């Protein structure tokens, strides 16, 4: 089975319902979502199932939801049937609240790192922020797509931050605080989000 088509050799690719330049903002956005998904997959290979069954379940669902987000961004047909809804956003919010109660209280900004899986989750978090910025650019351009994708990405970056902290905590690895950070978090890190 051949996986190459040669249809993209002139710098264009297929959306659902049209062709577009490979560097078009819409392509950049869903391409970045694919990048997030790949790093989440890498993090999953670094997690011990006996310690992180709950996170692995979350991350598998998130991988599917990211495919939905990418598919929705790629669909430019008239009256498309989008897959993303508010329900996954609400699930992420609940999981963020649950996870933030587990690690030690946070007062200062932390540096990405710690255990390998936590470091990978931080990479996924920062790429998610880029994907969110790209969807905001799409929103400003007037291009149509389900705006729940932007909200989902916003919550996902928070979830990945919380998950990275939980991974370090359960592995007995302390978060590495940014040494010049003032005390910016109140109430255990809920008042101000890192990387917001």
TrEMBL record:
InterPro entries, alphabetized: CblAdoTrfase-like, CblAdoTrfase-like_sf, PduO-typ
Record-annotated Cobalamin adenosyltransferase-like domain positions: 3-167
Enzyme Commission number: 2.5.1.17
Keywords for this protein: ATP-binding, Cobalamin biosynthesis, Nucleotide-binding, Transferase
Family: Belongs to the Cob(I)alamin adenosyltransferase family.
Entries under NCBIfam families matching the protein: PduO_Nterm (TIGR00636)
Protein name, UniProt field: Corrinoid adenosyltransferase
Species in which this protein is naturally found: Planomicrobium okeanokoites (Planococcus okeanokoites)
């Amino acid at each position: 089975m051949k996986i190459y088509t040669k249809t993209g050799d002139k710098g264009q690719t297929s959306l659902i319902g049209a062709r577009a330049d490979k560097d078009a903002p819409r392509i950049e956005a869903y391409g970045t979502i694919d990048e997030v998904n790949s790093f989440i997959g890498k993090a999953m290979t670094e997690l011990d199932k006996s310690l992180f069954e709950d996170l692995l379940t979350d991350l598998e669902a998130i991988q599917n939801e990211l495919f939905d987000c990418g598919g929705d961004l790629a669909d430019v047909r008239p009256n498309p049937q989008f897959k993303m809804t508010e329900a996954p956003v609400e699930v992420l919010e609940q999981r963020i609240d649950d996870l933030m109660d587990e690690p030690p209280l946070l007062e200062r900004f932390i540096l990405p790192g710690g255990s390998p899986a936590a470091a990978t989750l931080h990479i996924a978090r920062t790429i998610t922020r880029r994907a969110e910025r790209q969807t905001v650019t799409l929103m400003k351009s007037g291009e149509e797509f389900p705006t729940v994708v932007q909200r989902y990405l916003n919550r996902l970056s928070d979830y990945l931050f919380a998950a990275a902290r939980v991974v370090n905590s359960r592995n007995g690895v302390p978060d590495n605080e940014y040494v010049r950070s003032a005390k910016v978090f109140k109430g255990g890190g809920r008042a101000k989000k890192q990387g917001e």
